[in-house]
Amino acid sequence: MLIRFLLLVTLLAAPGLRPAFSHEGHSHGDEPAPPAAAAPRAEAHSDLFEIVAVLGPDRRLWLYLDRHATSEPIDGATVQVTLDGEDLGTATRAGEAIYLLANRALERPGPRNLVFAITAGEDMDLLPATLQIPAAGAALPAAPASSDLLSMALREPTPWAAGLALLLLDAAIGRAAAPRLLPPLVVVEPPASATRPPALPASAPDPWRVAAARAVVALLAVLLVPMIAWAQPMDAPRRQPDGSIFVPKPSQRLLGLRTGLAEPREASVAVHLTGQVVADPNASGRVQASEAGRIEPPEGGFPVLGQRVAQGEVLGFVVPIMAAQDRVGVRASIAELDALIVIGEARLRRLTALTGTVAAREISDARADLEGLRQRRAANLPAVTGREPIVAPSAGLISVVRVAAGQVIQAQEPLFDIVDSARLWVEAIAFGPAAVAEISGASAVTAGGQALRLGFVGRGMTLRQQGLPLHFRIEGTAPGLAVGQPVSVLVETPRRAAGIVLPAEAVVRNPEGGQVVYEMPSAERFLPRPVRVQSLDGRRVLVTAGLERGARVVTSGAGLIAQVR
Hints:
Helix 3 (157-177) runs antiparallel to helix 4 (207-229). The radius of gyration is 43 Å and the shape is elongated. A hairpin with a 2-residue loop joins strand 4 and strand 5. It contains 9 helices and 32 strands. Helix content is 23%, strand content 36%.
């Protein structure tokens, strides 16, 4: 019972532990203060710099210096600090773009006016800020009133639910520790002279089980109570009740966040099409059999997938297959030609021996007849004993292999496909031909996010799948592409639209599925802004609504901010 009472007291006190770190931070108009779990901090910025000062538990001042427009950390700068007109000296470098200042003046509680004199290269600026320094022995705040418990539970249900689960677990363990009366199976009467141990009451629980249950509950309390009390640790990224996201500067450095200023301008309107990677017809080839036969490998074996071959290289051989009757006819023709060749050779020798008495015309005719017979024999001989080489029609990489040793193929059957990976095209289908009547540029994006620069080749004049085919040449190197790989094609047109151009990674999806960007109104606060965007190319988008001019927008790392809970 005592353990349950202590757990209940801890549950009610756990949500109230966090305000122990709250402070009256410097206010910037209507901007909400940092979370109650954050350390005392102050921030200031100008057109050049942005600085965040965080007072550590050891009363040392940690300074984080960035470029205001881009949030790029500034390393190697000189930061001179003044507190209420008193010079505290120059902050020392504690890490990359992190500066540290230790002074006993930072132990004086109350609101303190800070002035930072910053020198970074040729840039110099003065930034004023106000830091609320809490008292060294500040007591914990009083427990919340009963009227505030309900609102506190609704606002932060996690620790209350965890405490309730702990109480239910304690009750379940206590119930399991209760004794269970079982009927005896065998009753044995001890001897009269034997010493009978003192019997426990029938309703008394087992002492070992009770002790074990209490030890388990105490261990769970030791493990879970700190988790409840510190559910949101100091200076951890978290979502604010107003929907904004608090991300301290150390976390921003780890996430690699970068920002940019929203500046309206005009950009070309793009049309989104669906396409796929195809081979350049002038740099690819398909090897087909010219006649039926049996496949034989060349010396060294058949080429394998991905192997580079040269134009004219022998890829294999086709041994013609003939019916038995046709084979007999060819062999008979060869035998007949052999006999005629023997007769022709004898006739040519006889006429040559009679040179001077026989006309030279007869000798030349006999020689021509003999050569014709030999050519006819050579033409018929491969049909029985020869084989036809299979050569590569172009240079490139073997992308498809459809042969095996001993395979019987038919005429016009495809055997190999050769593709030059450095010369690939993209084919897209435009279902609105009027929208792409004029093309000023194009780009494509793969499913993995790889951006491709495209050059327009031409458009077809015949509809395919109720759409007009368009061909684009991939410019530059694009490693990792494969023929048939789907891509999203963005076709730029001469039409112009006004908006704010941002990197494509700056736009993310919110839990409702809408498109948002994150505005950075202060150094450690981010606001999700629903926007309407239009794709420009594989790397940029055009925001047409939802952003104001001059807003500081996260351009790198927006997806990581969206995961903060």
